[in-house]
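Example 3.
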Amino acid sequence: MNLFAQLVVHGIYAASIYVLLGVGWTLIFSVGRVFHISYGVSFAAGAYVSAYVSNAFGLPLAACAVLGLCAATAIGVALELSLYRPLRRRNADRMVMLIASLGMMAFFTALISIAFGVKAVSFVGVRDEAITLGSGVIVTKYEMLSVAISLVSMLVFFTYWRRTWGGRMLRAVAASPERALMSGMNVDSVRLVAMAIGSAMAGLAGILLALTEAATLTMILTGLLMATAAAIVGGLGSAAGAMIGAIVIALSMNIGVWHLPSSWQQAVAFVILLAFILLRPQGLMGSKVASARV
Amino acid sequence: MRRCVLALGLAASAMSVTVAWAADIPTVRIGYLVSLTGNVAEYGRASQQGADIAVAHLNASGKVKVEVLVQDDQSTAAGGLAGLNYLVSQGVKVVMGPAASVVGVPIAPVANRDKVVLISPYVSAPQFTSKGGYTFRHHMTAAQTEYAFGTYLAKKHGSGATAAILGSETPNSRSGSKAFQEGFEKAGGKVVAFEVAAAQATDYRTPLAKIKSSNPDILYMFPDGVALNALAVKQARSLGIKAKIAATSIITDASFIRDAGPDSEGVMYSTEYFDPKSSKPVIAEFVKEYEKRYNTAPVVWAGNAYDVVLMAVQAVLAVGNDGTKVREWLYQMRGWSGVGGGDLSFDEYGDPKGRSQAVGVIKDGKYVVDDTFSQVAMPRP
């Protein structure tokens, strides 16, 4: 077996998950102007709800996925309406919003552990199939499905973002909420749409992950970390940058341990993140601020 | 008014009967300190279930009345400390628990200071017990069982056997995997890959891909959690790893077979010997009651907890509710017979002697014991 090729194949699968996480988080960050700490909750909700309904009611995978997506989106929308929007109306400081979001993450973590227990929940009875690509390199059916769904989602999202009126409104609010407001846009509604799309992307990532792995409480934090790492490496605020950042991180985490112990996987991701923060803080796609005056 | 007086009179006479009945049989008060919530709740719940059966049996015998104070350690050291302090404040001197090393190791010095006896059904970290201390365990350490398992597999496979190890970043997995490697290599085998994943990782495919490229005869895995073991086995098989898979006693929780599905077939495991199909009366009775109450087969630590309660109550009946005297009684105890073995005693550290170990395999969705052997003595690290 060609180990390098196998690690690349697995890196591509991991990238399909991280891309959804990174782009979804960046959308919420740029349009909603909020460092959405509770983002991992939508990621976990997608995974838990889809796996749970599959195990408990034996529904078809597509129906489980729809329910998972609904749960993830509903959490995001509920947070936008009950937390971020009222705080913005009171001109709350960004730090206040960040701490409020942190509190909600703790709340939802407890809620998920009460609802689904503390053990990992996987799709029981859903069997993955291995496909040999050549020279012993293996990819599974659900890994390929994950890559395909992620690719299609990105195509749909970027077409919407670049080519449609709705996308143009999202970009307008991301660029300047004040100017968008002055031109007569309903900024609150646009932000709600951004939150719904971003949370749905996190939920979709969670469902795809649970198909080959499992829903766990730790994914609430790892989901957030991977999303923010992808966003920072790609350039904060750039959706295309977040996508490229996610691919860079996923591939390096897998290929990086080719000659290193596997326990270094996460360390590799954070070395890259640190390198970007120190050497290229604007990320891959961000533009450098020449000077700033207070 | 007359009716009221009559009712009071009847109630008073009923109370006097209760007091007289209670005065004839001694009352023993013990504590449970187990993880009922948190990430190792699976260890605590089964322990409590096994212990509850012992309490029910003792109370039904009519020879003793056992009262239990239950504290949930929440799978954390802080929760364990709070629970122990509460039990101490209530005058409890003997405690069944904790079930997890992450709780047991930090609270052991407190038990020694407060002269409270802790008897654990499942703590495997060596640091839990100390020479002459108040902490005991009715459970072999992970290092002991895994060392012996490594030796067994290397010998069984013959000369030139190779193994790859998939561990995780927990103290339990670290010490157990290392002991497996030592045992395997001492018996002539060779460990060709040793990969360690993050503690709560759910994606083992990268370390497994590396393991596959080393082409081992045996894949030994020790992710620290039942569901995580099931994931690792599924991912190993989906990657096309054909090696025999060997795991720890963690997979004897029945949810492993449900979660891993057909991939669980042929997975070998090693555990303290506890055969639920044994015809030995104490085991048969325990298993029957456990299955009736909880609708599932008991895990080894549930049986251990059953024994611990019987032991604790017997000790208190013999020497009274005094931590130091109970400790001495336990160190002197010889030839104790229970679910966990027929000739048990504790060494000078409070670790068990005389237990047996079993090697089993999952066949047709069931745990089947293949072989048993006596506890292997290992030098304390």
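Chain B has a mean pLDDT of 89. The CA atoms of residues 105 and 128 of chain B lie 5 Å apart.
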